[in-house]
Specification:
six-stranded parallel sheet, three-stranded mixed sheet, 9 strands, alpha/beta, Rossmann fold
Length: 289
């Protein structure tokens, strides 16, 4: 059995960890909030590591799913002195391609493999094990990681060397921005027109203009309830990464800039921890009801 550890038990990570345990791969979990680790370990009958050192010393492979570049770099730095030779590190966080390349370089120096493997599919995909996983790194490491990746995802694609997975995820995050902008604006328009919104969702979700976000998040807009899902502040962080990567090519992308402005407004209004479908609040306010 591949002894796999999991770092980061947030909304996405907890479902991914459960699926790894279901596949017989997960042995150890760690989280910055240690109570989360103890609770999940009790549920899954596995070990809650007291430290990153403990996790590194007892696992052959480690999956990371945390929030920011600096957090990923900090975790890698803490793991490095304690990793077994030839350990496999799979980072499912969303960070910059530059951070992924830096981590790969550090781990290669201690004879360990690294894959940047960000995911998409929402908390639903994490729970059901149907995530899309975008992978960068050596082909040999990608092959070695198949049992772990297949336990968490349904669509698993190797895009190239280190950093390529993060570049693919940045592309995905731009698509998500466009989809939620369109869904929120369309629903605000339909509301202003006096249409029955449940019928709008049922009918248009089967049409050419539909998207995953329209089908799965437009109901939030009807119910004015935006719990769970993909937090505004996290997508804002991701879009700042996209903006920085675009600027390296001398480009400024209007969709990113507009969405960042609107997300900043939502965060200032106290909605930063709500699902990004809360963008409907701003679109709805455009209409004189």
């Amino acid at each position: 059995m591949i002894k796999t550890g999991f770092i980061g038990l947030g909304a996405m990570g907890i479902g991914m960890a459960r699926n790894l345990r279901k596949a017989g791969l997960l042995t150890t979990v760690w989280n910055r909030n240690i109570d989360k680790a103890y609770n999940l370990a009790a549920e899954l009958n596995c070990i809650a590591a007291a430290s990153l050192q403990h996790l590194a010393q007892t696992c052959d492979s480690i999956v990371i799913c945390i929030s920011a570049d600096e957090d990923v770099q900090s975790v890698i730095t803490q793991l490095l002195p304690h990793l077994k030779p030839h350990s496999l590190i799979i980072d499912c966080s969303t960070v910059s391609a530059t951070t992924a390349c830096n981590c790969a370089k550090q781990l290669t120096a201690v004879q360990c493999d690294f894959l940047d493997a960000p995911v998409s599919g929402g908390v639903e995909g994490a729970r059901l094990g149907t995530l899309a996983i975008m992978v960068g790194g050596a082909e040999s490491a990608f092959t070695r990681a198949q049992p772990i990746l297949q336990a968490m995802g349904k669509t698993i694609t190797h895009f190239g060397q280190s950093g390529a997975g993060q570049s693919a995820k940045a592309t995905n995050q731009i698509l998500c921005a466009g989809a939620i902008q369109a869904a929120a604006e369309a629903m605000a328009f339909a509301k202003a027109a006096g249409l029955p919104l449940d019928k709008v969702i049922d009918t248009l979700s089967k049409g050419a203009g539909s998207s995953w976000y329209f089908t799965h998040r437009a109901p939030n807009m009807i119910n004015n309830s935006y719990a769970g899902g993909f937090k505004v502040r996290l997508h804002e962080k991701d879009l700042r990464i996209c903006r920085d990567m675009a600027q390296q090519h001398g480009a400024q992308l209007p969709l990113i800039e507009m969405t960042l402005i609107q997300y900043r407004r939502l965060i200032e209004q106290g909605y930063g921890d709500e699902d990004i479908s809360t963008l409907f609040r701003l679109k709805d306010a455009l209409f004189n009801h």
